[in-house]
Each structure stands twice: as C-alpha cells, then as structure tokens.
Amino acid sequence: MNDIDDFDDALSLDPGFADRFERDEGRPPCKLYLISPPAIDAGFAETLAAAIDAAPVVAAFQLRLKGIDEHRIAELARPLQAVCASREVAFIVNDSIGLAKRLDADGVHLGQEDGDPREARQALGPTAQIGVTCHDSRHLAMEAGEAGADYVAFGAFYETGTKPTKHRPEPSILGWWSTLFELPSVAIGGITPANAAPLIAAGADFLAVSGAVWNAPEGPAAAVRAFAALKGMG
C-alpha cells in the first residue's frame, strides 16, 4: 500500500456520511458536464446543440476522443467549440494541454498521468478551467486544489462502459469535499437519471455524463431533460 492509500485509509469516512449530509442551499444547483461519445462524425454538432438546448442545465462539454490523430480531433472540435461558445457552455479538452492550447479551449481535464495543473495553468493562462481526476482519493483531490485546479473529479461511482475503472468511491466523499472546500467537485462513472439522486444530494456540483445521454433510447435531448427534472439540478 502506498502513502496515498495510507492517507486515505487514515481519513476513512463512515459510508453513511452522505446520508446525513444535506446539500447547502447556498451552493449553486448541480449542473451537467457532458463528455463526448468515444467516436463522433461531422453531424455530431447538431446532436450536441440539441442536447444543450433541451434544458438549461449543461455547463460544460468535454471532447474525449482516443486513438485518432490530433489534427483530426482538431477538425472535429471546431464546430463543437462553436456550438458551446454560442450557448455559454465551457469547451474542455481531455488529457492534452497542447491540444487545448492549439484550440484555445476553455480548459483541459487532466488524468493523473496527463500533466500537472501548474503546467496547464502556465500554458493556458489564468482564465482556463483546469480539472483533475482524483478517483476515490481525498489526498489527490487536496493536492489538485493546492496545485491550482478549478475542479476535482471523483469516480467511478457506478459501473460504466465508457472506460475501464478500478476506483469506486462512496457518495460520502462528495459530502466531505463540499463541506470542507469551495472548489467544485464532479461526479463521474455510470451516472444516469435513475441513480444520480444520491450524488446530487451528497454535494456533487457537476455530473459528468456520456453514455446515459448519447445512447439514451429516447434520444439525448430527452435524457438531458430527465436529468434536469431531478431535485437539486438547475
């Protein structure tokens, strides 16, 4: 067991902590943070626009495309970036500080192996939104905050087919974080309208969602409206 695991175990929380936590009414309502499907085509811009327009709950969109040339990603990004800009939705690039700078994106989301928030800040400037994946670790989240991140992401809270996961935090980590820190938190991993309520109640500021929207049988717009109808969303 490494030092980070030791630290988190030493600060272990009662899993029922979130059940006793009441969302601070002074905190802004929870918003949706959309993540792109793993593959898109030129027509996806219309799909994205319809999803954002379905309800006023989408605050950010992350472009996450793996295994294709960065030049192609940049080509696909431009119309999506325009959709987001016209709707005041933050356009975030996954993993690549260089691509975020090339696109003049609103920000970048970094995994634990994708660079330091300080490096991203230096490259992207003071107004960039920098997020960091922190899995189920309070220690990593505090380190990210100290390094200047604008938000921390915890997960995966539920089973997800989007990417392999080995970390499974309890909702209590969201309650702990929102009680002690003002920095926003993002809940991620298998979140649907049917299972999101405990995460919202526990204090998540954003729900990161991909498949539950893009693969919804009733369509992305209807899925966004279903999230918007949940208590604590707004």
Automatic annotation (TrEMBL):
InterPro entries: Aldolase_TIM, ThiamineP_synth_sf, ThiamineP_synth_TenI, TMP_synthase. It comes from the Bacteria. 4-amino-2-methyl-5-(diphosphooxymethyl)pyrimidine binds at residues 62-66, 94, 133, 163. Pfam families: TMP-TENI (PF02581). GO terms for molecular function: magnesium ion binding; thiamine-phosphate diphosphorylase activity. GO terms for biological process: thiamine biosynthetic process; thiamine diphosphate biosynthetic process. It catalyses: 2-(2-carboxy-4-methylthiazol-5-yl)ethyl phosphate + 4-amino-2-methyl-5-(diphosphooxymethyl)pyrimidine + 2 H(+) = thiamine phosphate + CO2 + diphosphate; 2-[(2R,5Z)-2-carboxy-4-methylthiazol-5(2H)-ylidene]ethyl phosphate + 4-amino-2-methyl-5-(diphosphooxymethyl)pyrimidine + 2 H(+) = thiamine phosphate + CO2 + diphosphate; 4-methyl-5-(2-phosphooxyethyl)-thiazole + 4-amino-2-methyl-5-(diphosphooxymethyl)pyrimidine + H(+) = thiamine phosphate + diphosphate. Mg(2+) binds at residues 95, 114. Keywords: Magnesium, Metal-binding, Thiamine biosynthesis, Transferase. Gene3D superfamilies: Aldolase class I (3.20.20.70). Residues 32-213 form the Thiamine phosphate synthase/TenI domain. Pathway: Cofactor biosynthesis; thiamine diphosphate biosynthesis; thiamine phosphate from 4-amino-2-methyl-5-diphosphomethylpyrimidine and 4-methyl-5-(2-phosphoethyl)-thiazole: step 1/1. Its EC number is 2.5.1.3. One of its GO terms (cellular component) is cytoplasm. Its cofactor is Mg(2+). 2-[(2R,5Z)-2-carboxy-4-methylthiazol-5(2H)-ylidene]ethyl phosphate binds at residues 160-162, 190. Binds 1 Mg(2+) ion per subunit. Condenses 4-methyl-5-(beta-hydroxyethyl)thiazole monophosphate (THZ-P) and 2-methyl-4-amino-5-hydroxymethyl pyrimidine pyrophosphate (HMP-PP) to form thiamine monophosphate (TMP). Belongs to the thiamine-phosphate synthase family. This is Thiamine-phosphate synthase. It comes from Rhizorhabdus wittichii. The lineage of its organism: Bacteria, Pseudomonadati, Pseudomonadota, Alphaproteobacteria, Sphingomonadales.
